[in-house]
């Protein structure tokens, strides 16, 4: 996808206004019109001081925000309208994730939102599966690439072993939008334990416990011991 196509696609995703339309809108009605460029600059601590003098909100540097989660394998930060008022306009959420070399954001689903991401630094793999468990995408991404994950589709992001993998993005709803993790110490599968669940996988209670308790980390998981992600991680949770 060409640069201008990516920009057009992202504008449509977050329902923002193209810069060339802002002056016309301001003449018609006194509202704040945000371009994708202004939103990104504002969230990352930069803002255009020559325009929107009295109407612009304060800038918010997402790098100054303390991570919501952090361990030895990376960190993640999320913003919503309660942290930064411009995000209330379209009920958007914003996130920033940094994974250390080889680590993985644990497989999870978004039950209330579609997610869009932009790779800021490094490279990695995005794996997505259909709700029925079949592979939807297993793609290598690098700086500047854009990816998106539909609602209800399990997915994970895996950093390459060459260095950190950092990506930023939007969720289409910030209201009660909590990712549901499918692997790790906080996996949703832990609350589904029981005879019926075990029978569905053809496992004994001990066998299921062995699988669910194998990973002691949560949210951001360490690098695979076999030399890196080569298979379908999300599609083979059991």
Describe the 3D structure:
With 238 residues, the chain is an alpha+beta fold. It is 19% helix and 27% strand. The chain has 5 helices and 12 strands. It has helices spanning 3-14, 19-28, 36-43, 195-201, 205-212, and strands spanning 69-71, 74-79, 93-99, 104-109, 115-121, 123-129, 135-142, 146-149, 155-159, 165-171, 180-181, 220-221. The strands form 2 sheets. It has a 6-stranded antiparallel beta sheet, covered by helices on one side. Strands 4, 6, 7, 9, 11 and 12 form a 6-stranded antiparallel beta sheet that branches. The longest helix has 12 residues, at 3-14. The two termini are 35 Å apart.
How would you summarize this macromolecular structure in one to three sentences?
The chain has helices at 3-14, 19-28, 36-43, 195-201, 205-212, and strands spanning 69-71, 74-79, 93-99, 104-109, 115-121, 123-129, 135-142, 146-149, 155-159, 165-171, 180-181, 220-221. It is an alpha+beta fold. The longest helix has 12 residues, at 3-14.
